[in-house]
Amino acid sequence: MVQLFEFLWYTPSHYDTCCMIVAYMIILELISGTRISTIRSLLLVSEYFRNLYQSPDIKCKVRVTNAPWRFSSQPSTCDAAILGSLIRHDAGIGIFPVPPPPYKGISVESLALAMQGLQCFVDFDAGHGGCMVVGEVVKKVEEVLAGVDRLNIWDRI
């Protein structure tokens, strides 16, 4: 009678339990790896724009191309304002200096949302509104997130 009861109420064997634990571990490892990789990609977006504005090349879109550098300080002021905005924003959301992996306390969603909240301070009266990089940053963040949306965990197990 006990054998019949055990047959009707199946208890997973040791082998089944081990397989389930291994499957859970693989899934958790994939989720953790994807999270770390996505956060790293988002941090690279910020790093890219900081490096872009730290370089000696002028990015200001309103500069006069034939004016000598030494007589035109407005383009460097514009670039400096954008770089300052980027650094202050990144420091304010806790990603400058860049934190080390595994990025404890940072979620992909909160980081992406915070990065999309960037505000650049440029001289609109002098026509520098087109120099802002907010739209470019938002676009790059969305590209990173679009890559995560296509993730199919079952393809990796």
Describe the overall structure.
By secondary structure, the chain is mainly alpha-helical. It has one domain (12-156). It has five helices and no strands. The protein has helices at residues 2-8, 14-54, 74-92, 108-116, 134-149. Helix 2 (14-54) packs parallel to helix 4. It is elongated. The two termini are 40 Å apart.
Tally of alpha and pi helices:
5
> Into how many domains do the coordinates divide?
1
Secondary structure class reads mainly alpha
**Coarse morphology:** elongated
The amount of beta strand, in percent, is: under 5%
Mean pLDDT: 83
Task: Give helix and strand order, one letter per element, not per position.
Answer: HHHHH
Q: What percent of residues adopt helix (DSSP H or I)? A: 55-70%
Low-confidence runs of at least 5 consecutive residues? 1-8
Key structural traits:
5 helices; disordered N terminus; 59% helix; 157 residues
Task: Describe the structure concisely for a colleague.
With 157 residues, the chain is mainly α. It has 5 helices and no strands. The protein has one domain.
Task: Compile the SSE list and pairings.
Layout: H1 2-8, H2 14-54, H3 74-92, H4 108-116, H5 134-149
Helix pairs in contact: 2-3, 2-4, 2-5
